[in-house]
């Protein structure tokens, strides 16, 4: 890393080309195939325009060091706005150097400024460094697991089929 100062910035739609390779690297680091860059660019650009998401980028000169996506949601249980960290990736050379701390601090301040009353993040149980970072910001693990299912579900139940009457049980006869 050079002596050039690091900057943390809130991204605009024109920053999409810097965001896409960072998210591709994050996905690839998880062991999954990286998404198509053109399709990913469309989604990132749409998210930035929608104002439902913010992206934060850490840079040193022209080199991207990290990206963090914040989604904004409304909770019916809490009757409040909240934020969710969706993507948080640092290039390996930036890890353990305070970059993630500065990015998360910026993101939490941004979420609070947008009216969020709390922030959530999904952290793999095996990622000790990420867990330490979130714990330093007073995040706590909850008792819920995040479940996921690909769509379409391919349910065996045809919900559009007309209902059929079940035969009455022998003890139900009148």
Overall structural domain count: 1
Fraction in beta strands = 15-25%
How are the strands of the biggest sheet laid out side by side? Answer: 1-2-3-4-5
Stretches where pLDDT is under 50 for at least 5 consecutive residues are: none
Q: State the helical fraction.
A: 25-40%
Q: Which fold name is given in CATH as the topology? A: Aminopeptidase
Count of alpha/pi helices? 4
> How much is the average pLDDT?
89
Calculate the terminal CA-CA distance, rounded to whole Å. Answer: 84 Å
Order of helices and strands: EHHEEEHEH
Number of strands: 5
Given this structure, which CATH class is correct? Alpha Beta
Q: In terms of structural class, how would the helical and strand content be classed?
A: alpha+beta
Return Rg in Å: 22 Å
CATH architecture: 3-Layer(aba) Sandwich
Characterization of this structure:
By secondary structure, this protein is of the alpha+beta class. It has one domain (6-141): Aminopeptidase. It contains 4 helices and 5 strands, in the order βααβββαβα. It has helices at residues 16-29, 37-50, 99-113, 128-136, and strands at residues 6-10, 53-60, 63-75, 80-90, 119-121. A 5-stranded mixed beta sheet has the order 1-2-3-4-5, sandwiched between helices. Helix 3 links the parallel strand 4 and strand 5 (119-121). The mean pLDDT is 89.
